[in-house]
Write a structure and sequence with these properties.
- By secondary structure, the protein is mainly alpha-helical.
- It has two domains: 7-247, Rhopdopsin 7-helix transmembrane proteins, CATH 1.20.1070; 272-393, Arc Repressor Mutant, subunit A (Orthogonal Bundle).
- The radius of gyration is 27 Å and the shape is elongated.
- It has helices at residues 7-33, 36-59, 68-74, 80-95, 110-129, 146-177, 181-184, 187-209, 220-247, 282-295, 306-313, 317-328, 332-349, 358-364, 370-381, 385-393.
- Helices cover 66% and strands 0% of the residues.
- It has 16 helices and no strands.
């Protein structure tokens, strides 16, 4: 196989090979551990590799060689209509791995299937139907046609917006319904979406600076940036998946066995504007809620949900949700973490830090991670746990 190594082809080759390796690793992991999110990320990484392949191979001289040139012409390597849907379903499987794809969801893949059929028709007609080459008589790769590149960009931007909406809804729902939202709201997801947005932004920027779409060589820096971002996504995504499997990511709550990327079965949309549950005596209900949280120490349950609190109060989950939103001006997750933080402060004031670590005290009060504890403590008290200990307890 001929490959003309140069600075451009060599750099893209490095990212291409690494992308294929991570796609393979994610595929194997997804199959072995039945993690659908890993399978979708493997697909996304593979599509990214195929996206840069024509330029990598073009800089390696393939467009100037018989046989190689025809392969690049007829093989639809840049699947622009497929990248967006795969990203969207990766996020869905990461956040809700137990949900299945509905039949109507396959409509998302119709444009990609249409382009594959279009490429197949071109290949069959040029090679077997017409006596001479017709579709590729102009010597231009159809993957780089202006209409396809523009439509592909619109498709990716549309699915980015759809994915972002889905994630934000999930995030708002989690903070409104469970006390361990930080554990199931993926910081990795925010970094992933940010990297994809940078990809789209760079595409606009570089093509705005280089409006001549026909100049193959002048697009190198864009594809190099794309390759670097793809490398970050594939590497960080694989490392995160390995970490989740290594820790098993279980919440330490009796009767609860949810991984970080799972939603509990009783999680549903209960926000303040979705119900008109009457709160005739807001102050009285606030006292009742605070009293039962403290008396029964409900906050010590790291897997506490809105349903648990509503059952303890003997009211509907919507009423508790409205009570927390309207009475305390916060979401359910922050409300529970406020009680946990105050419980930790109480333990510190009682001198329990002499025999236990700060983290041990945090776990006793219902926190399930150091990062969540530090964020909640600083949000409620205004300083970090260590600063509070030094200024108020050990002074």
């Amino acid at each position: 196989m001929i490959f003309d190594f140069s600075e451009k082809s060599g750099l893209l080759l490095v990212f291409f090979v690494h992308g294929i390796v991570f796609a393979t690793l994610l595929l194997v992991q997804g199959i072995q551990h039945e993690r659908k999110s890993s399978l979708w990320l493997a697909g996304f990484t593979l599509l990214g590799c195929l996206y840069i392949a024509p330029f990598m191979l073009g800089y390696a001289g393939w467009y100037g060689l018989d046989g190689y040139r025809e392969f690049l012409f007829y093989a639809p390597l840049q699947q622009l209509f497929l990248i967006g849907p795969v990203m969207y379903f990766y996020v869905q499987r990461l956040l809700n791995p137990d949900t299945s794809i509905r039949r109507i969801s396959y409509l998302h893949f119709l444009p990609a299937a249409g382009y594959l059929l279009y490429a197949l028709i071109i290949f069959v007609c040029d090679r077997f139907v017409f006596e001479t080459v017709y579709f590729y008589a102009d010597g231009r790769d159809k993957d780089f046609a202006v209409w396809y590149q523009v439509a592909g960009f619109v498709s990716m931007f549309f699915y980015f917006a759809l994915t972002l909406h889905h994630y934000r809804r999930y995030k708002a729902l989690a903070f409104q319904s469970v006390s361990y939202a930080d554990s199931i709201v993926h910081r990795w997801m925010e970094r992933y979406l940010t990297a994809f947005l940078v990809m789209l932004t760079l595409r606009i920027l570089f093509f705005a600076l280089n409006p001549e779409w026909g100049q193959f060589g002048s697009k190198f820096w864009y594809y190099l940036c794309f390759a670097a971002l793809l490398y970050y996504i594939s590497l960080a995504g694989y490392v995160r998946a390995v970490q989740v499997l290594a820790t098993n990511s279980l919440l330490p709550a009796p009767g609860f066995h949810f991984r970080q990327d799972q939603l509990p079965n009783d999680l549903h949309p209960v926000t303040a504007d979705e119900a008109d549950d009457a709160l005739p005596d807001l102050a009285q209900w606030k006292e009742k809620l605070d009293a039962i949280m403290i008396a029964d120490r409900l906050y010590e349950n790291p897997g506490l949900t809105l349903q648990h609190v509503s059952a303890a109060l003997g009211v509907t989950p919507r009423l508790v949700s409205n009570l927390v939103n309207q009475g305390f001006a916060m979401n359910f997750n922050d409300y529970v973490n406020r009680h946990r933080t105050r419980a930790v402060v109480g333990k510190l004031e009682a001198g329990e830090q002499r025999t236990k670590t700060l983290l041990a005290l945090a776990f006793e009060c219902g926190f399930n991670s150091k990062s969540t504890f530090n964020r909640a403590f600083k949000k409620e008290i205004g300083v970090t746990p260590r600063e509070f200990l030094l200024k108020n307890i050990l002074k």
